[in-house]
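FIELD: query
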Amino acid sequence: MPTQATAKRSLIQKALESARFGHLTKWVVMSSFIGFLAGIVAWLFRGMIHFTRHRLFEAPSGVHGEGLGAASLAHWWIVFVPAIGGLCVGALVFWIAPEAEGHGTDSVIRAFHRLKGQIRARVIAVKALTSAITIGTGGSAGQEGPVAQVGAGLGSTLAQALKLSDRDRRLFLLAGGSAGIGAMFGSPLGGALFMPEVLYRRADFEGEAIIPCIVASTFAYATFTSITNTHRVVELPPEVLSQLTFEPSQLWIYLILAAVCTAVGYLYTKTFYGTEALFKRMKRVHPILRPALGGLAVGVLALALAPTCGEHGILFGGYDLMKSSVAGDLTPKLIVILILAKILATSLSIASGGSGGVFAPALAIGALVGSGVGQLAHGIMPSVQPGAFALVGMGGFFAGAAKTPIAAVVMVSEMTGGYHLLAPLMLVAVVHTLLSTRWTMYKSAVASPINSPAHAGDFVIDVLQSLRVRDVLGEIRPPTLIHEDVTLHGAMRIVSESHETHFPVIDDEGLVGIFSLTDLRRIFLENVIEDMIIVGDFMTDQVVTAKLDDSLHDVQRMMTRKGVNAVPVVDSENPRRVLALLERNMIGRAYNEKLAALKAG
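FIELD: result
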């Protein structure tokens, strides 16, 4: 007997799949609920980070910023705080949920493409806890990846509980990820666009996911801001924002900024994954200890920077660096040091096996790059505002690193309120993305939907439906035709001189049947007289045919249904006139050639 809970779940599932409750309504209702839950979870996650940071880092040390200030002996013990955090994270990841390792967003991308949208429910809690520990103990990591994976886990778990289809589960996975980002970063539209865009390295979107992602992100943002009363992550003073304007005459400087972002983005990506490979090669070091080593190195680096960088440092997500860059508080020398140090610290914190996002550090690095370019340009053209270049660098740098030019532009504008810089922001984002097509921070992303296992079935059908029989025959040459009155001996002589495997049979008016080499082999098992048996005795008279304008998809389905490997192609005006012979392997070859052309184009 079904339990009451099972009966309720069955009723919900039937309601979701009923004709009155179609796809659009299902997406709206489910996505709204996912968004509401993601907004609450984002608030709880932020609270966990603040609690961990205050209890384990700020209260004991008195350090409240990303830098340690003037170095002193009192700061030496802080070197070990990120190491202790890394040890805790390594144990949780190793023993409970290995998927919680890394920067989160990549795991969501992999789940969409490779795992049918499935994320284990335990990942929700473990990812939130491990990321809160990594960030709270001083790791150079952001909240984007973790909150995306936590939100995606909510969407996936709910879809699995309702036993929805693989396609629906993938969509709600993306909706949950977008909801988490839209809430945490105060960017409902940017969050909605991020997950559908980050899946692919080229300029592609997961179009069907846009509606559920927008709905979920909107509800998550509304829930989160209602609880926290926080609308912008990077709150810039009005007097600073008012000075951030775009001068068309400076467009060429923004092109230089795009080129510099490309070079630094390459360094960021290669350093990150080079560090990951280095730690994975440490076979003698237990996986639990690797994040601790990474944390220890981050602590040493932060202490080493203290005498030079003062209050500016590489701990935590990097939001103070963003504000300082836009405000113009950093010298060019300090900017170069902090760019290199932030890249290294982020790699050590996450690629060693820690848990956290790469989004916030990338924004900080981009802001530093933009500020540096702006300050150098200001020395030549005093009208240049370094703060404007810092803000554009934030979005432009991350856009190329993540291959999300549209989402990055929208998110930075929403996060900072700097809407006056949309034009140069779009330019830098697109140019950086075009210049950096060979690398990305999200290695699980595929080139385009046609490369995704999630769309494998869709594109097989689409490709074959776009091809006609005439497209694969080239110069039509009539096959070897054999008259039905030819004897077995005569048929064997004709077959021996041919390279074909199937032979249409005709009478005086046209097609009447077909036989294959398999049919001939079967005849040899019988005691027959070759001159007494004619082709009409062993041919198949129920002939499956195709016409030149039939789609290959329809022909393949018909061949599969009838269990044949070749069909005669006949004239549409005269169905008994044989034009060619279409074999199954010709369809497969045409599909592969078309697919290769689509990938290349």
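FIELD: remark
The domain at 459-600 is CATH 3.10.580.10 (CBS-domain).
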